């Protein structure tokens, strides 16, 4: 190990024989650990040549490719801060992230380059490169001119490795600053807790712009030098086809619901598997039980968030309980009321956490950061939690107004603020309702301004135009007025009842 960075931690654990496969894709392409070292080295050299200095941000909004993973590693190697963006974000959303984070480099899909040019200029982004869904583009062309050798830049545990934007209850997204130390500690914890071995093969179907697909899944594999079967997106048929070649699979609950819908998922297809994990949203007990009946495997549910990586996990060796998220990993946890008073065992409160995995704060939001930490350093997760009689933690709700749809977080406030700007809309309220596929679906309630001539389609189209597709309401209700309590506050519970009916 040359130094103490996250990348060096991985590198020290890569197989001695670098010809071993690091990644393969269903179309027969294959990348060895030697390829990984060379390509990430070229990217690191290219990024350094742009004048970007350690600590500068690299914003990346590209399709899921192995080259994009190598770009992430190139950022880590050159000490740059990786800032991944959901490919579903529209230009207005990207505008906010670029303006807020002022990255030195933007890497986008060639088809978005023209549209993002003026936004990047306005945000004073010095360098724009492209990378497409085939792993080609100006980034690759430029990197090819650089040598593969690169000495990983020394960084301290407290230096930033990544910024992940999470939506905020106020409608303004917050950039969670994750340090080299945060990511390293969580990776080591998970690889150990989930008993990763050198012989594991990870079947990877998650997007790589979030904690789950980027850090949880890939970091475990890197720490054991595993082969990763890398799918460009989740597709039931492709997952089932590749399961027999894999030992580990990680997914959001929607993945498991969809897999169960295919008779091809059975004990035979799962014969080599040793671990299925689920998280990012609650896994229904029915899904958990049906999966065990069908495959003989008990899904291991864990709980986490952008700000802290994985916080709790069901045990690898002990009993995994449906509806529970298991026990705390390497962080201290406590359950407290809104004022921060610890609640009695068995009572519901908000989970607070402290540990090496917990982020450094929100990018350029010191006040917001301070308000989400207790004076003694505990971070307030906003997740309503109960510790049951056997010591298992259960996430029973959220104190934050948040919808989780197919594993993506949607903050109603953001959609409401946008809807309220629509000509003909007097006011709006957005809630979640149970959805058989996505777990929760976004539902909008609208009060029209007078006799404005707008209907459900117009409202949906308005949102679709500017916001990511997963934020588009699956249903719109037009009401005479919104239900309010005596204080004038919109009664979202009443709206949830209407939506669920
Ligand atoms: C797509 N759509 C969604 C959606 N994904 N709508 C609501 N919620 C979602 N999650 C839209 C599509 O744009 C489309 O709209 C319509 O819904 C149907 O699309 P689809 O073809 O069925 O969707 P698909 O492309 O298959 O994507 C679904 C999915 C994807 C479940 C595969 O959403 C996904 O990969 N989710 C994983 C999210 C994730 O990784 N979360 C981890 C966060 S980290 P239209 O109008 O085009 O028809 C985290 C911390 C932790 O939370 O603990 O892990
Ligand atoms: P994100 O901000 O995208 O990282 O989402 C984090 C949020 O997802 C958490 O605060 C929880 O509300 C939710 N979450 C993650 N895992 C689980 C789980 N296993 N059960 C219930 N909620 C979860």
Summarize the structure in words:
The structure is a single chain. With 501 residues, this protein is of the alpha/beta class. Among the domains are: 6-193, 3-Layer(aba) Sandwich (Rossmann fold), CATH 3.40.50.12780; 402-500, ANL, C-terminal domain (GMP Synthetase, Chain A, domain 3), CATH 3.30.300.30. 32% of the residues lie in helices and 25% in strands. It has helices spanning 6-13, 33-49, 66-78, 91-101, 110-122, 138-143, 180-193, 211-224, 236-242, 253-260, 285-295, 366-372, 412-420, 456-466, 492-500, and strands at residues 21-24, 30-32, 57-61, 81-84, 105-108, 127-130, 160-166, 174-179, 201-204, 227-230, 248-251, 275-278, 300-305, 309-313, 327-328, 332-336, 348-354, 361-362, 379-387, 393-398, 403-405, 408-410, 425-435, 439-448, 475-479. A 9-stranded mixed sheet has the order 2-1-10-9-11-12-13-14-15. A 4-stranded parallel sheet has the order 4-3-5-6, sandwiched between helices. A hairpin with a 3-residue loop joins strand 13 and strand 14. Helix 7 (180-193) crosses helix 8 (211-224). It is globular. The structure holds malonyl-coenzyme A and adenosine monophosphate. Malonyl-coenzyme A binds at residues 206-207, 210-213, 234, 252, 254, 279-280, 304-305, 405-408, 438, 469-470.
Q: First CA to last CA: what distance? A: 59 Å
The average pLDDT score comes to 96
Radius of gyration: 23 Å
| Largest β sheet strand count, sense and barrel closure | 9 strands, mixed
| CATH third-level topology of the domain at 6-193 | Rossmann fold
**Corresponding CATH architecture of the domain at 6-193:** 3-Layer(aba) Sandwich
Name the CATH superfamily assignment of the domain at 6-193: ANL, N-terminal domain
Number of helices: 15
Which strand order spans the largest sheet, edge to edge or round the barrel?
2-1-10-9-11-12-13-14-15
- Say which molecules are bound, naming each kind only once: malonyl-coenzyme A, adenosine monophosphate
- The CATH class of the domain at 6-193 is identified as Alpha Beta
Helix content: 25-40%
